[in-house]
Design brief:
Number of strands: 15
Helix content: 40-55%
Largest sheet: 7 strands, mixed
Distance between the termini: 40 Å
Number of domains: 2
Strand order of the largest sheet: 2-10-9-8-7-3-4
CATH topology of the largest domain: Aspartate Aminotransferase, domain 2
Length: 395
Amino acid sequence: MFFLEIIKILIIYNSVGLNALAKQLRAEGKDVLSFALGEPDFSAPAVVVNQAIESLRAGRQKYGPAGGGLEIRQAICAKLQRDNNLEYAPEQIVCGIGAKEILFHVFLSMLNPGDEVLIPAPYWVSYGDQIKACGAKPVIVPFTEDPLQPCYRAEMLEKYATERTVAIVLCSPNNPAGMVIDPQEMVALGEFLLRKDWWVISDEIYEYMTFGAEHLSIVNVAPQLKSRTVIINGLSKGFAMTGWRVGYCAAPQQMASYVKTLQSHSSTCIPPFIEDAAVIALNGGKDLMADQLLLLEERSKLALQLVRELHGVHVMEPKGAFYLFLDLRDRLQSSSFADRLASMPFCERLLKEEYVAAVPGDAFGCPGFLRLSYATDEDTIRAGIQRIARLLDRI
């Protein structure tokens, strides 16, 4: 029943055919500019690729241990100590086929039918549907208007909490808004959560992509929360290894055991040759991607500057990830669309008339918004935002 509900939701989004239309237009020779992809446009580090090739040639092609081999789990522990000043044992680490799978297994491990989970908006599209698949209820906490950002304030969280609330999802740096929870707000949030008995799921997949901001885990500011916090991370974003599917969680040992058991009955393991390559990436750390991360920061500045020149368009202040989340509500209110706060019709016209692919904010719990990924070259950024401006002027 719950999976059927999710399938219906996906059919609704697919019915507009944005992805299919983009492919069709490209096949017709149209110059389609894509700002929709949630992945960097550069490749994984050469040293990582070379290790995978060497391991393949060495015969590392069979099944590996469920939940990850000892070497990769030790490398993750070392990474958490080095980068985050957090101490975990290998038994508290579970690896899986991408952070998405690990997150799903975490929800399955902690949620019962009727449970509620707080999700500050805007939020990554899979959170709500994964929670529903567990028979639980996602409770969306609206964003704040001033400043325009996801809301982690105690008074707002308290307003949406009930006796059925069992968890909260944090995402910093945030997809789709690119915002980073600042240290003072993180401290206040930690103090609030210490008064609750909720689980805390901290999605930190964009950790390496913070620009002019400090990345903190909730456990850094409130160590007492460690016993009920699950950190979700992976190599997809920070190392441009989206297709490699390496995700992991750091969790209390009992929770890690539950997640590992589910892992053993689903995809079982990461391929050993990919584990070997992942160890190289984890040990190399952020320095392996220093040039690419600097490039992303420059693109962020350019894209933000150009978007701020669009009349009547506001943007959530990005400090990380590689997205801009545009607030088009003022412009859409004066448009000819039947639903003047829905960004899906705008995205359809944007693709059909200007050949620009973007993601409507409806998918992230924010109708009237638009997510742009600036993980592309500067010429594409300039041309794409110019095309968006043209459509805004016409509507």
